[in-house]
Write a structure and sequence with these properties.
Length: 321
Amino acid sequence: MADNNIHEAALIINNGGLVAFPTETVYGLGANALNPFAVAKIFELKERPSFDPLIVHIASFSDLARLTENISENAMRLAKHFWPGPLTLVLPKSDLVPDIVTSGLQTVGIRMPDNPVALALIKASGCPIAAPSANKFGQLSPVSASHVKKQLPGVDYVLDGGKTSVGIESTIVAIDGNQCQLLRPGFITPDDIEKALPGTFVFNGAKPDKLVAPGLLKSHYSPKKPLYILTENYNELPEYSGLILHSKKINGPKAASLFYTSQTGNKIEIAANLFAALHALEEDENVENIFIEPVEESGLGIAIMDRVKKAAYRYTNTVVD
Ligand code: TXA
Ligand code: MG
């Protein structure tokens, strides 16, 4: 069931249940982050491997203090600059955070979402809320309540906050001195971070040691139908193809269904509508294959193409999963 009753949703969280809720990025599947049994239900419903840690959502800086230890000055500056907003900081965890949340890591991913429903839910629950995106593991992230219900009909409650505004998941960073490691590109770009913290260097890639960040998996965010990135080779598409374009100025090949994420190639609009486009064509009965126009990989285009390449990966490469 989907509704807007924050009070009822908070009661479910307090009783160890699961509530899907909107954030500014994508919908989350939330549980009381301090209740390991409730958090275990997230992994079960999502069919998520237990080695994949969750992000903890907070509504105040006092929660940040309880959940972490020895936060560096630079991490605090980033939090103050970008929160509430689509930035997740990976920080040293306090003993209060159960191991199941962090998959045994000594760090915890934390963010304060910029969405009134999410913040109201966290405040009404009186606890931080652990939440991955509210989709089955590896599938498309939800940007509306109906996307959540399609994949997770077993969730106890869905708070409906309409379509999310940012549309792709938060940027994830770990900061060490002046070095800022980008663990997942997102709406906040390396440039934004370097501007907010002059003297900081943002670099890409997985942590050399034991970091398990499945946001870094090659295949993720996949629709159930084959997805291909459009290249010049495709001047004619197979029958029953859906096509996603990002500007009306582009003359794409003929398709059974056409979806524009933007009229003008605006990257903010493309990000906001990317998952909605993939969901729509995944549901479209006239469509067997989906083709998507690539975006230039600069600024927000880096995060957009990260999602597109991961969504297409399993259909263009042999993967064992
Ligand atoms: O925008 C978002 O971040 C959304 C909304 C709901 O907040 N959440 C989200 O969660 O995308 P999820 O679980 O789908 O992706 C979280 C990513 C995973 O790739 C996980 O491995 C990584 O965050 N992560 C979480 N804690 C971490 C940690 N301590 N160290 C490194 N990576 C971590
Ligand atoms: Mg996810």
